[in-house]
C-alpha cells in the first residue's frame, strides 16, 4: 500500500527543527517541478493511475505533484513501497542540508543517500550527495574514523657524499639535572655518515647552542648546510648571523613533522634509552656516562648504510669495550705500520666503505618503491585552500585539522608555506603530509540562502551547524622526557 503524500511530509517534519524557514507551498512546488528542465524526462515517463499499483518503480502525478514510486528489496523492505517527492533543482541543496546536518548527523554517502530515498528523489541523486558531503566543512575538519589521509611518496634517499658537509641539529630536554647543572643536550649528526655528537647544556639559548656548535666545528670543520627545526633558538637573529658569517646555509624542517629530521629523531630514541638504562642500572650521573654511551652509539652499524658511523668517518673499527675484550682473549696485537703504509691502507678502507655504503643506500631505493605503492602525491598551488593538522591553541599536546588556510608558496618538493592569520605565527611551514585540500561549496562562499521546507502547512525553523570537537588526533610530542620515571 502506498504511503499518502501527507504522511511523507509529516514523517519528515520532525527533522526540521530550525527557525526562520522560508516555506514553499505545494502549489509552488508543483510549478517549480514543471519549470525544471532536468525533470522533463521524468514527466515523459509518467504512468496512468491504474498502472501505478502493478509497477515496481515508476513516476506518477498526484494532484499535479510529480512523485516516484520505489519498490526494491535492496533499498526498501519488500511490500512497503516508498512514495518519493521529486525535488526540482532549486530546492535540492536545501534538502541535502536537511539530510546531512546536525539534526540527522553528518553521515557518510551511502547512509545519507539511503535516508534520502525514503522521502525524495531526483536524477543523479547519489552524485549530488557525494558532492555535497565532499564539500561539507564539518566533515572535512573532523574526518571519519575509517578515513586516513595517505602519506606522500618518500623523498629520494640521498647517496653518501663528503662527510660533515650537511649537519642536522636539535635539542633534547629537559632532562633530570646532572651534577654540573646540565638539563639539556644539543645533538649534532652528519647526514651522510650518521655520525652523532651530543653536548650537555644548562640552557638551550642561542648563545649556548653556538658555543657547543663551535666545539663540533673545531673538530670536523665548517659544514655547508645545517638543518634544524623551527625552534626559536634556531630561528633567532643571532643564530642566523653566525651561520651567515661562516658561510653556512640553513635549512628548516617543516613544523610538527619530526620525520623531516628522521635520522636524528631515531638517534634521540636510542640515546634516551641508553641514558635511562645507565641511570637505572649504575645509579650514576647521566652526564658522566654520556661519553661512553656515545662511543657505543657510534659503533652500531646503521641499517641504511651497512657500516657504523666510526667506520665511515675514521676508515677503521674504533676500539671499544667489545674489541678490548676480544683482544684480551686472543692476546695478540697488530704489527706496527709505517706512515705511508698506514695512510695508504686508511684511504683504501675509507674508499671501499664509502662505495659499499652507496650500494646499500641504492638498495634502500627498492624499499621506497614498495612504500610508495600506498602513497598519494599531493601538489598545491599558491592560493589553494587547505586544511592543516596543527596543535590546538588551547591544548598544544593535541592536534586536529584546522582551517581552511591559504597556500602562500611551495618551499620545497614536500614543504609548503601557508597563511595562518589567527594563530601566533601568521605563516607556517608545513609538510605535505599535514595538509589536505579543502573543498569549498560555492553556495557557502556567499551568504547562505534561506532554507526551504516542503510541507502542506507553514512552520518556522532555523539552521545552526556546530563543529564537533571530537576526532582529536594525537601527534608525536616533543623530546622532553623524565628519565626518572622508569627508575
Automatic annotation (TrEMBL):
Highest taxon, organism lineage: Eukaryota
Domain Integrase catalytic: 159-317
PROSITE patterns: INTEGRASE
InterPro entries, sorted: Integrase_cat-core, Integrase_H2C2, Integrase_p58-like_C, Retrovirus_Pol_polyprotein, RNaseH-like_sf, RNaseH_sf
GO biological process, one term: DNA integration
Pfam families (alphabetical): Integrase_H2C2, Integrase_p58_C, rve
Molecular-function annotations in GO: nucleic acid binding
Protein name (database record): Gypsy retrotransposon integrase-like protein 1
Amino acid at each position: 500500500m502506498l504511503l499518502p503524500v501527507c504522511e511523507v511530509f509529516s514523517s519528515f517534519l520532525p527533522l526540521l527543527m530550525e527557525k526562520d524557514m522560508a516555506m514553499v507551498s505545494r502549489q509552488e512546488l508543483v510549478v517549480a517541478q514543471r519549470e525544471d528542465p532536468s525533470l522533463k524526462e521524468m514527466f515523459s515517463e509518467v504512468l496512468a493511475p491504474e498502472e501505478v499499483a502493478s509497477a515496481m518503480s515508476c513516476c506518477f502525478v498526484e494532484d499535479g505533484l510529480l512523485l516516484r514510486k520505489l519498490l526494491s528489496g535492496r533499498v526498501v523492505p519488500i511490500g512497503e513501497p516508498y512514495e518519493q517527492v521529486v525535488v526540482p533543482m532549486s530546492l535540492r541543496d536545501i534538502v541535502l542540508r536537511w539530510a546531512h546536518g546536525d539534526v540527522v548527523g553528518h553521515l557518510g554517502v551511502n547512509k545519507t543517500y539511503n535516508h534520502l530515498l525514503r522521502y525524495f528523489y531526483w536524477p543523479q541523486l547519489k552524485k549530488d550527495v557525494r558532492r555535497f558531503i565532499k564539500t561539507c566543512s564539518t566533515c572535512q575538519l573532523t574526518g571519519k574514523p575509517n578515513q586516513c589521509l595517505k602519506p606522500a611518496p618518500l623523498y629520494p634517499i640521498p647517496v653518501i657524499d663528503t662527510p660533515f658537509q650537511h649537519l642536522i641539529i636539535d635539542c633534547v630536554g629537559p632532562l633530570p639535572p646532572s651534577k654540573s647543572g646540565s638539563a639539556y643536550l644539543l645533538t649534532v649528526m652528519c647526514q651522510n655518515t650518521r655520525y652523532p655528537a651530543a653536548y650537555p647544556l644548562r640552557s638551550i639559548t642561542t648563545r649556548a647552542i653556538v658555543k657547543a656548535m663551535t666545539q663540533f666545528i673545531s673538530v670536523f670543520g665548517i659544514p655547508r648546510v645545517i638543518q634544524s627545526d623551527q625552534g626559536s633558538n634556531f630561528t633567532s637573529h643571532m643564530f642566523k648571523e653566525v651561520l651567515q658569517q661562516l658561510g653556512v646555509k640553513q635549512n628548516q624542517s617543516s613544523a610538527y613533522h619530526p620525520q623531516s629530521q628522521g635520522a636524528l629523531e631515531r638517534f634521540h630514541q636510542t640515546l634516551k634509552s641508553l641514558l635511562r638504562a645507565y641511570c637505572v642500572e649504575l645509579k650514576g650521573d647521566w652526564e658522566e656516562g654520556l661519553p661512553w654511551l656515545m662511543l657505543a652509539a657510534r659503533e652500531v652499524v646503521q641499517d641504511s648504510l651497512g657500516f657504523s658511523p666510526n667506520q665511515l668517518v675514521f676508515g677503521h673499527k674504533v676500539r671499544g669495550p667489545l674489541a678490548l675484550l676480544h683482544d684480551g682473549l686472543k692476546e695478540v696485537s697488530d704489527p706496527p705500520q709505517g706512515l705511508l703504509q698506514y695512510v695508504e691502507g686508511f684511504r683504501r678502507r675509507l674508499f671501499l666503505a664509502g662505495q659499499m655504503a652507496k650500494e646499500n643506500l641504492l638498495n634502500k631505493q627498492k624499499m621506497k618503491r614498495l612504500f610508495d605503492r600506498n602513497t598519494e602525491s599531493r601538489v598545491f598551488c599558491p592560493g589553494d585552500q587547505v586544511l592543516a593538522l596543527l596543535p590546538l591553541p588551547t591544548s598544544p599536546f593535541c592536534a586536529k585539522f584546522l582551517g581552511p588556510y591559504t597556500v602562500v608558496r611551495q618551499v620545497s618538493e614536500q614543504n609548503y608555506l601557508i597563511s595562518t592569520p589567527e594563530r601566533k605565527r601568521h605563516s607556517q611551514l608545513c609538510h605535505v603530509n599535514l595538509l589536505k585540500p579543502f573543498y569549498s561549496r560555492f553556495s557557502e562562499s556567499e551568504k547562505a540562502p534561506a532554507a526551504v521546507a516542503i510541507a502542506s502547512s507553514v512552520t518556522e525553523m532555523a539552521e545552526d551547524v556546530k563543529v564537533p570537537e571530537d576526532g582529536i588526533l594525537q601527534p608525536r610530542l616533543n623530546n622532553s622526557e623524565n628519565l626518572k620515571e622508569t627508575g
